[in-house]
Amino acid sequence: MLIVPDVQDVYTPLQTDVIVLLSECRQHLEVLLESIPTMFQSNRTSESAFGAAIKAAFLAMKDTGGKLLVFQSGVVLNYYIS
User: Which regions form coiled coils (predicted)?
Assistant: First the structure.
């Protein structure tokens, strides 16, 4: 997981080793995917960085090519003003 602080100016911090073979890193990827809900359970930000994530993935893959599968989920927050 890489964190890029500015979604307006997306870049890939690492030029190599961003794209890896699934067979070599499957266990690490599964641990990351299982930990994401816990890592962000107290996050109350409802904005999405979907476009920036797609751009960063494109930049990471542009030299090697590949397939990008994207899933997006969001939470609808209701605010009541009394």
Answer: none
